[in-house]
Design brief:
Two copies of one chain form a homodimer. Chain A has 343 residues and is α/β, with parallel strands linked by helices. Chain A has twelve helices and 14 strands. Chain A has a six-stranded parallel β-sheet with strand order 3-2-1-4-5-6, with helices on both faces. A six-stranded parallel β-sheet of chain A has the order 8-9-7-10-13-14, with helices on both faces. Chain A has a two-stranded antiparallel sheet with strand order 11-12. In chain A, strand 5, helix 4 and strand 6 form a beta-alpha-beta unit. In chain A, helix 1 packs parallel to helix 6 and helix 3 packs parallel to helix 4. In chain A, 52% of the residues are buried. Chains A and B meet through helix 7, helix 8 and helix 9 of A and helix 7, helix 8 and helix 9 of B.
């Protein structure tokens, strides 16, 4: 039976907090019946979140009788479910719906949810739940498989989207490429991957290495980045990922106008030149690795401003720069293919 | 009732793998009844492990009738208990002994051990077990508390010992200093701390920050380092710790003659100058932080060779260098106190 999703974003329907919702709407719209947010009822998903076309925003599960799965559609800092959502989740279970969550607080660890799911024969699917237990060994990596990794200057600036879109364009050009998902949203979109930020710290790079070993029969892997090397809360996850996937090239992602670290408003993000330097230094401990292209998220700019920003960044960094949603990914894909040829 | 330990190192009684045993013998000898290694029975702990004086090495629990606790004395890569030890652990439980373990494989998750412990009313104490669940916030850190952090060029080079010995010397000089343990062995020695490598990746820096917030009523904290920024398996843990404790100064630890990365024999450790550079760069993202002293582990050298190495390193790095076991920690403590005065 195929998934028919209601995506819960109640009271949090902004593109930043509801990034899981937005990405599933963008990449899996055929699976989505409705978005559930009683505070925004009657709109379309496109009107509410800028993506999802005419998929309706509903105020109650009654309005989506065909849905069989409730998806928790937000990714708040620290990954906790809002208290006010507990009754909605319980009501979904009572209707016989499965519930899918990417939060750190596992639904299946909640005694009330677990009992309800048992009573109603539904599944609680915690995407972040894992049992990774192997350290990285730096053994068996194939050098004929090109590894590209998206990194960024902060959380939620477009690292996952850049990785997915680059892979999609490579596939359109008939290259054998694969998106390597490393976060709950990427996993929901791709159907496989590893939720690295929820792995026991000693085993994060090992988990990433195993993902690479599993998929390196493809010609090109594009590994989704997480957090940033300068985010005090998540930098360790970022470095485990960087050292676990041992990339040959980096795509640097940034959001124009993002000035302070997510969740720490009095901490200014260092300049992008410094972000590039730190990533190249830490990626190059054992083999050279450079930023080969830049994905600019210019949501906040007009078309003209975006073009000015694009040129300014391209001049400063001397690599292709583009906004994936405005310009597509062709300049970045060309940079990937050039790296592949040059190696 | 005070702990009377038998330390299990069966078949692994070398100072590298049995570092937990060595450290407890060094810093808690009054708690240790015996070391259990049937392959080395009849020796003293000092003869076997270079520490522990006349504490006997025994071949069976029968030889330590007063012991009430079995301590798993090794820390293998990846943290798994050797299969051959399972019967020894079970036998200890059957005798009514508590069992303390710092391994990633939790004793309390083993159904047979858990049932036996219940039957015999003993405790299974997994030092690495934790429920850390808060991200770092970079909020509330007191600048009148000096934070020193020991870092290194590889695993098991003396970062914990350096931190403990510096704190002990500071206390001898009547400063209000505290050792912040971040690994299972340090926790066993100090009686508190956080096993950072076993925390869920997103929460490592948060767990470290909470340790700092809890103990910053002391004047000086010396935070034990873990792994290294260039170890592909553990670099993320190292960076989470570095960014979680936000040190004012670093003590760089290295072992003379250590040339390849622990567990990855074909990977050469970068030169110590590069290790210093990487640590200072990553420690200084938001505030300047430098290496203020170097702890050299010169076990493998003669006295004369060690002195030559010490001078060479001091010339190259222009900071105090000493081997803690040969020279004590006074030069490092002076560097800490100088940093405290200069701030």
């Amino acid at each position: 039976m195929s998934r028919k999703l209601v995506i819960l974003t109640e009271g949090h329907s902004n593109t930043h907090t509801a990034k899981t919702a937005c990405s599933v709407l963008r990449y899996r719209p055929e699976e989505v019946e409705a978005v559930l947010d009683g505070t925004q009822q009657g709109m379309t998903a496109e009107q509410l979140l800028g993506v999802g076309g005419s998929i309706p925003v509903i105020g109650s599960l009654d309005e989506a009788p065909n849905a069989n799965t409730l998806l928790i559609g937000i990714a708040p800092p620290g990954g906790k479910i809002p208290d006010s959502w507990l009754s909605v989740v319980l009501s979904a279970i009572t209707r016989g719906m499965d519930v899918v969550s990417g939060l750190h607080d596992f639904l299946s660890d909640d005694a009330e949810f677990a009992q309800a799911a048992k009573n109603h024969k539904t599944q609680l699917i915690d995407v972040r739940k894992n049992n990774e237990h192997e350290i990285a060994r730096r053994n068996g990596l194939r050098e004929d498989c090109l590894r590209i990794h998206t990194v960024g200057h902060d959380c939620s600036v477009g690292k996952m989207v850049a990785a997915i879109e680059i892979v999609n364009e490579l596939k359109r050009q008939e290259y054998d490429a694969k998106f390597i998902a490393t976060g709950q949203t990427g996993i929901l979109v791709e159907g496989d991957g590893c939720p690295v930020d929820c792995v026991v710290a000693d085993f994060v790079s090992g988990a990433v290495e195993r993902l690479i070993l599993k998929h390196q029969h493809h010609d090109i892997l594009v590994v989704e980045g997480q957090g940033s090397l300068v985010h005090p809360s998540y930098s360790g996850v970022t470095l485990s990922l960087l050292h676990g996937c041992l990339p040959h090239g980096l795509i640097l992602c940034y959001e124009v106008g993002r000035e302070t670290v997510t969740g720490i408003p009095d901490l200014s993000i260092p300049p992008l030149t410094e972000i590039r330097r730190l990533n190249e230094i830490m990626a190059s401990v054992y083999q050279p690795c450079r930023v080969i292209g830049i994905a600019m998220n210019s949501n906040a700019l007009t078309q003209q401003q975006a073009e000015q920003e694009r040129r300014r960044t391209e001049d400063a960094f001397q690599v292709p720069v583009c906004d994936i949603f405005r310009h597509g990914t062709k300049p970045l894909v060309e940079a990937v293919l050039k790296l592949k040829q040059d190696r």
